Amino acid sequence: MIPRRYAVRLAAGAAWAVAVTTVLAGPASATHDFRMPSTGDGGRRGPLAGRTIEIDAGHQLGDHNFPREIARLVPAGGFKKPCNTTGTATNGGYPEATFNWHVARLLRSRLLALGADVRMTRHSNRQDRWGPCVNVRGRDGNRIHADLKISIHGDGSYVAGAHGFHVIAPTNRRPWTHDIFRSSRRLALDTRAALRRVGLHVANYIAGGDGLDFRSDLATINLSNMPTVMVECGNMRNARDAKRMTSRSGRARYARGLAHAVRHFLG
Ligand SMILES: [Zn+2]
Fold it and tell me: Which fold has domain 49-265?
């Protein structure tokens, strides 16, 4: 779940950058989820050989155990936002962070099998971990010019009958996303088509009801320099969506659809 429109004007950018660098560069603490090197070993075979895909499994299972850490404000693209949020869950208590993690790993396996190099923004789903922060997720892959980024989430709407998936892409906003909004829109269209092809329905409660939403308040998208989408795979508070999202076959279907989208987008 991605909270809407939460913004504070960016005050002292430089001071913040120093603070973050110190945190990231410090000794690996038991609570913070550090990125590990990508799987890139070159020489892979397959239709996606030579391609690098960023997968962002939204939130972290332990975020709720570290309220101070995840509340800290970080740059989000001309404004500040909290480092991370806890994510939602099904009414039965299945955490969104775990759903995101499971689908991300299934997608990773599929993309590796197609020859791609895959980077994950987090490498654990644990109660004693928090983060990474949304600005770190946003910048991840920029330096290595990854080909695209898919951020995986589950929504938590209490609107009666609200169900289905939607795909979020950036608006055209200088100087943050003017360079990626067209390609991200194309990726969003491919993602929507691919998820539909595996039998999933677009959300009946978001924006124009066409399964697409264009936003400017998300750091994971705003700070990204590659085609980027965030996918709300379903409404975890809806019984039918929750049944699919808590099942192995259901999660496999999301991963299959997302792998199709990547293949189609990268031609
Ligand atoms: Zn989420």
Answer: Aminopeptidase (3.40.630)
